[in-house]
């Protein structure tokens, strides 16, 4: 941001659908940079953890020496938004991870990977998201996780009809089990950019 008023958003670009996030963010007027190295992370006002495969993102972030800087950035209050695999990566604890799978943590939740199993790999539904107001959000779930347990520091922003939580917020952290970056509904990204601007102000 550095005086320009234009937020600079990093998109973790190790694996997954980081390009789709970059397109949405640029459409909203943000500067977008791919983050693959600690130096790139140090220069951003906010960070997106994209969808993809959380176990691969975990391994690559450790291999590239990014896991510790990412944890420090989250702990220092950097606004971070994780979608799907990114929500898994941001969770304090996960169930049904692969052997040895780690997360960055920060969000006070337990997230279950691949919660909808092979019979319902992908589906779409409309969700009420009161914090965004207006029309329901059309949500696309792709081998999606759910929030099994919401800790006291986290708040649910949206739930499925059966009550399972699929969007959460905790201070500067935001997570969705679905993929707003593929639907053309920019409200979650706009909400995140508001957080980034408030944090930088
Ligand atoms: N669309 C996604 O990001 C899928 C997440 C994936 N199932 C994982 O465990 O990381």
TrEMBL record:
SUPFAM superfamilies: Class I glutamine amidotransferase-like (SSF52317)
EC identifiers of the protein: 4.3.3.6, 3.5.1.2
Pathway this chain belongs to: Cofactor biosynthesis; pyridoxal 5'-phosphate biosynthesis
Pfam families referenced in this protein's UniProt entry, alphabetically: SNO
Molecular function per GO: glutaminase activity; pyridoxal 5'-phosphate synthase (glutamine hydrolysing) activity
Active site: 84 (nucleophile), 179 (charge relay system), 181 (charge relay system)
Keywords: Glutamine amidotransferase, Hydrolase, Lyase, Pyridoxal phosphate
Catalytic activity, reaction form: aldehydo-D-ribose 5-phosphate + D-glyceraldehyde 3-phosphate + L-glutamine = pyridoxal 5'-phosphate + L-glutamate + phosphate + 3 H2O + H(+); L-glutamine + H2O = L-glutamate + NH4(+)
InterPro entries, per the entry: Class_I_gatase-like, PdxT/SNO, PdxT/SNO_CS
GO cellular component: cytosol; glutaminase complex
UniProt-annotated binding residues for L-glutamine: 52-54, 113, 142-143
Any one Gene Ontology BP term: L-glutamine catabolic process
PANTHER family, sorted: PYRIDOXAL 5'-PHOSPHATE SYNTHASE SUBUNIT SNO, PYRIDOXAL 5'-PHOSPHATE SYNTHASE SUBUNIT SNO1-RELATED
Subunit structure: In the presence of PdxS, forms a dodecamer of heterodimers. Only shows activity in the heterodimer.
Family per similarity comment: Belongs to the glutaminase PdxT/SNO family.
Function: Catalyzes the hydrolysis of glutamine to glutamate and ammonia as part of the biosynthesis of pyridoxal 5'-phosphate. The resulting ammonia molecule is channeled to the active site of PdxS.
UniProt-recorded name of the protein: Pyridoxal 5'-phosphate synthase subunit PdxT
Organism: Mycetocola miduiensis
Lineage: Bacteria, Bacillati, Actinomycetota, Actinomycetes, Micrococcales
């Amino acid at each position: 941001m550095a005086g320009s008023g234009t937020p600079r958003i990093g998109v973790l670009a190790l694996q997954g659908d980081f390009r789709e996030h970059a397109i949405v963010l640029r459409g909203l007027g943000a500067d977008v940079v791919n983050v693959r190295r600690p130096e790139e992370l140090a220069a951003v006002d906010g960070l997106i953890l994209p969808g993809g495969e959380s176990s691969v993102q975990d391994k690559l972030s450790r291999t590239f020496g990014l896991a510790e800087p990412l944890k420090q950035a989250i702990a220092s209050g950097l606004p971070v938004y994780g979608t799907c695999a990114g929500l898994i990566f941001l969770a304090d604890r996960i169930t049904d991870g692969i052997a040895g799978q780690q997360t960055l943590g920060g969000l006070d939740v337990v997230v279950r990977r691949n919660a909808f199993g092979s019979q319902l790999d992908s589906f779409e539904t409309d969700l009420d998201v009161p914090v965004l107001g207006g029309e329901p959000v059309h949500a696309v779930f792709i081998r999606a996780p759910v929030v099994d347990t919401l800790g006291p520091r986290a708040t649910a922003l949206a739930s499925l009809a059966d009550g399972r939580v699929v969007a959460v917020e905790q201070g500067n952290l935001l997570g969705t089990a679905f993929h707003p970056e593929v639907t053309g509904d920019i409200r979650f990204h706009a909400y995140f950019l508001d957080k980034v601007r408030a944090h930088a102000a």
